[in-house]
């Protein structure tokens, strides 16, 4: 007899609370989350494991490259027929990409790249252009983020009340706090946390050869300076958002700030930034269906003063999910 497929996991209120709690503090102990949510530690641990399977939940440590003086680029690549999947897979395996997505039409890839060590010209203008699968490439430097980074989209689902948010939120980054000079130990910690933001202290100790107190002190220093924060990777379908779109907004220069600030407040927006190029603002959005996307573009975007035109494309698939590493 054939075993029937498992029933799809329907997210309930506790699932949504856990997702938002992890967005607020990706390394919060299950015991702390349980106390705030009024459930047992075992319940939180069990829900966490289940969400890993149902929505692809992963907590990832992210480095704010902007604070380290490194630039971030959005690169749109047009590919030869049947080449987009192969190119997207190759880009996803690179350590300097944080987001890779396939756009509608099947011949375009959009990725976020953080070149290291002044390699922008060589990577963006030479290596990618010489790739046989690429027919054209457009690179836009992120000038100013309006939404994204430490403030992820899960903060907009309002699953937690104000008191719960306050109990779980990590302390704000102090703007005047000195930035740490990263050494080999810091880089090792960051590399491990990029793969698993909740990696155990014992594993961090073993990889660095440092004591528990030293590892904790290093983590506190990286987090308090803003160099390290945590983001939650997940699929959007079970959260009722099956349509993901990329929007390029041509905006009057005098309206860049007001348009960006408005976009940041929209519940549909998971990332928005001022970028170089003709389209001065880029936004990534999520919607229940294409009708809702139409309404958002015609009414939500259409109501913003200073927006002259909008180009839109749908994401067919996310290959690598973190949209943006630099912070505020």
TrEMBL record:
Annotated organism of origin: Streptomyces endophyticus
Domain HTH asnC-type: start-end pairs: 11-71, 182-242
PANTHER family for the chain: LEUCINE-RESPONSIVE REGULATORY PROTEIN, TRANSCRIPTIONAL REGULATOR AZLB
Alphabetized SMART domains for the sequence: HTH_ASNC
Classification of source organism: Bacteria, Bacillati, Actinomycetota, Actinomycetes, Kitasatosporales
Pfam families: AsnC_trans_reg, HTH_24, HTH_AsnC-type
InterPro entries the record matches: AsnC-type_HTH_dom, Dimeric_a/b-barrel, Tscrpt_reg_AsnC-like, Tscrpt_reg_AsnC/Lrp_C, WH-like_DNA-bd_sf, WH_DNA-bd_sf
Protein name per its UniProtKB record: AsnC family transcriptional regulator
Record's keyword annotation contains Cell membrane: no
PROSITE patterns: HTH_ASNC_2 (PS50956)
Keyword terms: DNA-binding, Transcription, Transcription regulation
């Amino acid at each position: 007899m054939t075993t029937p497929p498992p029933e799809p996991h329907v997210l309930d209120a506790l699932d949504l609370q856990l997702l938002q709690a992890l967005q607020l503090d990706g390394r919060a102990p299950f015991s702390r989350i349980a106390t705030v949510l009024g459930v047992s530690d075992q319940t939180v641990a069990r829900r966490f494991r289940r969400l890993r399977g149902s929505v692809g939940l992963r907590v990832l440590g992210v480095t704010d490259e902007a604070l380290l003086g490194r630039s971030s680029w959005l690169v749109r690549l047009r590919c030869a027929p049947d080449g987009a999947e192969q190119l997207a897979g190759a880009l996803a395996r690179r350590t300097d990409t944080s987001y890779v997505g396939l756009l509608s039409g099947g011949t375009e890839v959009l990725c976020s790249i953080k070149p290291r060590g002044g390699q922008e010209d060589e990577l963006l203008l030479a290596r990618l252009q010489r790739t046989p699968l690429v027919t054209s490439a457009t690179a836009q430097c992120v000038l100013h983020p309006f939404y994204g980074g430490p403030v992820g989209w899960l903060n907009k689902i309002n699953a937690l009340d104000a008191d719960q948010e306050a109990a779980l939120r990590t302390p704000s980054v102090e703007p005047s706090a000195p930035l740490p000079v990263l050494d080999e130990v810091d880089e090792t910690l960051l590399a491990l946390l990029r793969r698993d933001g909740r990696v155990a202290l014992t594993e961090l100790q073993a990889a660095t050869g440092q004591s528990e107190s030293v590892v904790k002190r290093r983590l506190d220093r990286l987090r308090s300076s803003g160099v390290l924060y945590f983001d939650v990777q997940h699929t959007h379908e079970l959260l009722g958002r099956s349509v993901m779109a990329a929007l390029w907004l041509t905006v009057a220069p005098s309206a860049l700030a007001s348009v960006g600030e408005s976009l940041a407040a929209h519940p549909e927006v998971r990332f928005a930034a001022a970028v170089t190029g003709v389209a001065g603002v880029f936004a990534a959005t999520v919607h229940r269906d294409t009708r809702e996307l139409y309404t958002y573009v015609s009414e939500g975007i259409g109501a913003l003063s200073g927006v002259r035109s909008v180009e839109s494309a749908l994401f067919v698939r996310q290959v690598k999910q973190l949209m943006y590493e630099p912070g505020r």
